[in-house]
Design brief:
The protein is α+β, with helices and mostly antiparallel strands. It contains two helices and seven strands; from the N terminus they run βαββαββββ. A hairpin with a 2-residue loop joins strand 4 and strand 5.
Length: about 100
């Protein structure tokens, strides 16, 4: 199974990529499993940006699956399908 992950702003700088394709041998892949894989791949800088001191995903991040907010689905436990695109969106600043 393959899932594409799109990175924006700080995460794009941290990973050095706009998008990354991840392969999973299992079919039961959730947003959380994708984050675990990214945590392994990018280590402490990724963990510091995405997780709070209690190990929970920071509330300011949004996760879009094929353009739909994971919060309107099953949150971090939303199951992904082969070919899905997961976008990790940080807060947008402006003025």
């Amino acid at each position: 199974m393959q899932v594409s992950v799109r990175f924006f702003t700080s995460l794009r700088e941290l990973t050095g990529k706009r998008e990354e394709k991840l392969e999973f041998s299992e079919e039961d892949v959730t947003v959380n499993k994708v984050l675990e894989r990214l945590k392994e791949r990018y280590g402490k800088p990724f963990v510091a940006y995405v997780y709070d001191k209690d190990g929970k995903v920071k509330g300011f991040l949004q996760f879009l699956i094929n353009g739909r907010s994971a919060s309107t689905l099953n949150g971090l436990e939303t199951r992904l399908k082969n070919g899905d695109v997961l976008a990790i969106i940080p807060p947008v600043g402006g003025g």
